[in-house]
Amino acid sequence: MTSFITPAPLKGTGRDLVDRINALKKERDAIILAHNYQIGEVQDVADFVGDSLELSRHAAMTSHPVIVFCGVHFMAETAKVLSPDKTVLVPDLHAGCPMSDMVTPEDVRRLRQEHPGAMVVTYVNSSAAVKAESDICCTSANAVRIIESIPAHQKVIFLPDQYLGEFVQRKTGRSLILYSGFCPTHVRIMAADIFRERKKHPDALVIAHPECPAPVAEGADVVASTSRMAIEVKSSEKKEVIVGTEIGMIHRLSRENPEKTFIPACQSCDCANMKVNSLEKILWSLEDMAPEILLDPGIIAGARKALDRMLSLS
Ligand code: 13P
Ligand code: SF4
């Protein structure tokens, strides 16, 4: 007969959990990194909260031997590529990114054959295996700069996000070979959402992520990476802000700007993958030292080149 052991539920309050996480973090000499879209209590327990570029930099530079990465899978992989000798833990291995899953290493090889001589610029929202097939990576914070660093005559394949690619094209006047990937969360925001909220809040600042389709990005005052949004909001005089990105962003914005009001452009702009991490799972990952990100050394070496090129230009 099969018998099942039911784990004892965690007792205590969120505060107890935070205390237990902090104690274990010290014991393991771990650092907790969290993306700007994580749920509030995860952001609040983290040592550093930021966008993909900042998180990559932290992962590359930290002296802690253990990184608990609270974000989605490709971000934790990036941390492992940049710090291969460290233990990179993820509270939940199921935190994927559908955009990242839209492109495979075979797709990159096929595109190279179709466009001989083209360089491959890959958005960090991609697997380490795809990065390993690429010439250079970029994030939403530096995509324009990375493209501008490439000679104008050079053919460039940009993948996987078609909307970030279009944004970069508009900003640089360059023509890129675009891939058809997209973020299923950001495409939920419609231009009509921005117009409607602008009408209701005519004095508001409108911010949007470059993963949004063009009509949304063009209707915003600021189109930027998540951490750049935080800087722009802080320095703006506006008291109301319409937020055209994943709604988890509002936690950080509200914490840093308690006097301002934040209005989500679209309530359903919610990335389920970003929300699977919790305090309990962080504690369990530190207790078990699992789940851990493990990568093939060849993939690490290939992806590292593309990421290092990006970091040296940022
Ligand atoms: P940032 O690098 O701007 O934080 O964006 C990451 C992301 O996944 C947006 O959907
Ligand atoms: Fe991926 Fe979009 Fe979620 Fe960012 S918001 S992790 S791009 S699905």
Termini separation comes to 59 Å
The name of the CATH architecture of the largest domain is 3-Layer(aba) Sandwich
Present as ligands are:
1,3-dihydroxyacetonephosphate, iron/sulfur cluster
Strand order of the largest sheet: 2-1-3-4
Spans where pLDDT lies below 50 across 5 or more residues: none
What characterizes the major β-sheet? 4 strands, parallel
Structural class of the helices, strands and pairings?
A: alpha/beta
Give the helix level as a range of percent.
Answer: 40-55%
Q: How many β strands by DSSP?
A: 12
SSE string, helices as H and strands as E: HEHEHEHEHHEHEHEHEHEHEHEHEHH
Approximate shape: globular
Structure annotation, total helices: 15
**The CATH topology of the largest domain:** Rossmann fold
Q: Could you state the CATH homologous superfamily of the largest domain?
A: NadA-like
Q: Please indicate the count of domains.
A: 3
Task: Name the CATH class of the largest domain.
Answer: Alpha Beta
Overall average residue pLDDT: 96
In percent, how much strand structure appears in the residues?
5-15%
